[in-house]
Amino acid sequence: MTLSFAQYEITDAPHMLALGARLAGRLRACDVVLLSGALGAGKTTLSRGLIKALCDVDDVPSPTYTLLQTYEGPEFPVYHFDLYRLENPEDVWELGIEEALDEGVSLIEWPQRLGDLSPDGALHVEIEFMETGRMVKLSGDALWEKRFDNV
Ligand SMILES: Nc1ncnc2c1ncn2[C@@H]1O[C@H](COP(=O)(O)OP(=O)(O)OP(=O)(O)O)[C@@H](O)[C@H]1O
Ligand SMILES: [Mg+2]
Question: Rounded to two decimals, what is the model's pTM?
């Protein structure tokens, strides 16, 4: 069952980076984070905050054209996907998603491109536009809710 368990009002991009750093502390190897929201919602910005905290990398390009960028962290690699340009869900196997799901933390922008291949048990992050800034909503199963107690 998917529960909606947290939401944050994020006024600007620096606060989006900071939210990424806060969420990063709760992630472990083999986690999948599905980031949805319209074009320009802030999915990559949130990913930058996560990757900085997990891998100490400052230069995080949007994987718009490469579809995948990989980062080495001290405990596990981080796989940053942007599937906007994925034509068929099956093409994701060629990107090496199996390896990502087996050993790393996978951050996936435009997860709807995966269709039925979308992984189970993921943390869902939905970003909505507000008059100023964004609303970031977290949902997932009860295990995720427990992990995000007091964030
Ligand atoms: N909370 C926020 N409030 C206002 N602006 C923000 C916020 N978060 C990010 N931005 C700005 O929004 C713009 C788009 O952000 P970003 O590239 O992260 O979006 P995206 O969801 O990854 O887009 P795409 O769908 O193209 O991949 C950037 O200029 C970023 O600085
Ligand atoms: Mg993006």
Answer: 0.97
